[in-house]
Every structure is written in C-alpha cells, then in structure tokens.
Amino acid sequence: MSEAASIAEMPPRYDPNGVEERWYLKWEQDGRFKPDLESEAEPFVITIPPPNVTGELHLGHALTYGIEDILGRYTRMRGFNTLILPGTDHAGIATQNVVEKQLAKEGVSRYDLGREAFVERAWLWKEKYAENIRQQFRALGCAFDWSRERFTMDPQYVDAVLEFFIRLFEEGKIYRGWRVINWCPRCQSAISDIEVDDREREDSLYYLRYPLKDGSGDIVVATVRPETILGDVAVAVNPRDDRFRDLVGKTAILPLLGRELSIVADEMVDTEFGTGAVKITPAHDFADFEVAERHHLDMPIAIGPDARITEVGGPYEGQTVSEARVSVLRDLGAGGYL
C-alpha cells in the first residue's frame, strides 16, 4: 500500500468513540489506575467528593474531577504510589425527592407504595444513575481505581463513619445538643443548607408593644414574623444604644400569653433595624439561638415538626403558621399592642 493510499484512508476528523473507550478499557484491565500494594514509594491519595445519584454529571463535575485526574496522573508520573478513589453519594432527601417526582408522573405517592416498595424504587434509581455516572467518568478518561469504588451506604463505609464518630465522642470532640436546623414539614426531616432554596421577598414589618412588668412603660420591637412571638423568651438591645440603657435587666411581658421576658444587652442587635430592640425567639431563628446560648435563656419550641403551633402557643395550639399569623395579628390589634 502506498503512502498516498494510506493518507487517503485516514478519516478527515478524529473520532474519539472508537479510540478512547478501547484504550481506557485496556488501561483499566492492565491495572494502570491501581496503586501497588508492595511499593515503598510515597503514597498519594485523593478520595473524590462523591457525586449525588440524583442525576447525571454536568460541566461543573467535569471541571472538578478533571483537576483531580490531572493531579493523580501528575503524581503517578512522578513516582508516587497513587490512588484516586471513586464513589457516589446517596444524597438522602434529594434522591427521595427526585424519586417522588418520578412517582408523581405515574399518579402515585410514596404513601401509596408503602415503605418497602418505595425504598426498592429508590434503590432502582440509585443503580441506574450510579451506572450512568460510572460511564461518564470513564468517558472523561478519569484514572480512578474502580476496584475500590464506594457508595455512601455500603456497610463497610457506614461502619467506618460510625467508628469515627465513636472515637470523636470518646475524645470529647463531639456532643449532642439542641440546634436550629432547616426542617421540611412535608419530608418530616432535617435538610442541608445546599438543599434550601433561599428567596428574597418584600414583607410587612410589624411594630409590637411589650409592656414592662414594673408598669413604667413599654418597649417596642419590630418583626416580620409576628406569629413567632409565641416562642419569645427575651428582648435584646445593643449595649451601646443609649436609648435602652436604663431598660437592660428589667422584665417585659409578652402580649397575649403573659410570659415574662428578660431585657438583655447583646452586640448582635443592629441599632438601625426597626426600633433597635429585637424580640428573641431562640428555637426559630439562627441568630436568636446564639443570643439565647450566650445569655442562658430558655428555648421553647412554639412551631412543631408539622408546622403547627405547639402547646407553648397556648390558645393558638394546633393552628398552622399561616393561621397563627392571622390570629396573633388580630389579637395584638384588639389588645392595643400592634
């Protein structure tokens, strides 16, 4: 065959499909991505941030894992005993939500299926998208050791995490305590910050009058969430605010419920917001929780896991948050506190 004939048969454009897949398979079969357990070379290990099985990889994943792949290949060529450990993450509530959306298209809910059948559907989703993710990583050419792949619900993985937490507890580095969290009343579960869709909106700012216990006057606070006064335990002012200096240490009375509220000084308070005096509702506001911890205040829970008012709210118990807002505003106005 002449050189001219060879050139004529060469495809005008490079087609990666017939080349890259074949070479990746060979590299994987030859163990090119595995560390040498007998090697005395310095180890270099990357555990990839496991992608969620909620869907498929996107361009952001390609960027992140591409960097890790480059680092792994670079250190391997420098003589390090290199391992890049792949895996996927169950993603908890996020995966539950995508499965529920799939069920909704079929006209059923997780309650219709029952627990066991729903869990089975979730595992079917996981297997489908975990396999898609594996093939996407291979298509990217990522030099991962697939013989060590992990899923965040693998028994060995769960045992390792549990062991780590036990060690931290025994060393006094973790403890169990109350915190304000993101809670979904539909899922009946805590959810992470990255699963929260924050939205800005214009809202009404309500000014509420809290009488002083000694009858010497009142202190006015401003809030956009009047229904949360049912969980109030204090009023806070800035220690540098001369307007309220003489009120620090006194006691105010919570309208509608008659609960005694301490008036405390705390640097958290923005003197430019509202009146400069802030109601403290520790169980339902992140900043208020920190104030309550600093001042050793009670933290009554006025809104339950079902998004309804608890017994802490007295006559408003059982109302939804929206219903309680209407009722509280009505009664505050009737009592002359609004």
Structural notes for this entry:
With 338 residues, the chain is α/β, with parallel strands linked by helices. It has two domains: 14-170, Rossmann fold, CATH 3.40.50; 206-334, Isoleucyl-tRNA Synthetase, domain 2, CATH 3.90.740.10. 35% of the residues lie in helices and 14% in strands. The protein has helices at residues 3-9, 20-29, 59-77, 93-105, 110-113, 115-140, 155-170, 286-295, 321-334; strands at residues 43-47, 81-85, 87-88, 150-151, 183-184, 189-190, 206-211, 218-223, 234-237, 251-253, 260-265, 277-280. The strands form five sheets. The protein has a four-stranded mixed β-sheet, covered by helices on one side. Strands 1-2 form a two-stranded parallel ribbon. It starts with a helix and ends with a helix.
The second-level CATH architecture of the largest domain is: 3-Layer(aba) Sandwich
Ends: how far apart? 96 Å
- The pLDDT mean sits at 93
Domains, number: 2
Enumerate the spans where pLDDT stays under 50 for 5 or more consecutive residues: none
Task: Assign the structural class, choosing from mainly alpha, mainly beta, alpha/beta, alpha+beta, or little secondary structure.
Answer: alpha/beta
User: Could you name the CATH class of the largest domain?
Assistant: Alpha Beta
Secondary structure elements and pairings:
Elements lengths: L2 H7 L10 H10 L13 E5 L11 H19 L3 E5 L1 E2 L4 H13 L4 H4 L1 H26 L9 E2 L3 H16 L12 E2 L4 E2 L15 E6 L6 E6 L10 E4 L13 E3 L6 E6 L11 E4 L5 H10 L25 H14 L4
Parallel strand pairs: 1-2, 3-4, 9-11
Antiparallel strand pairs: 5-6, 7-8, 9-12, 10-11
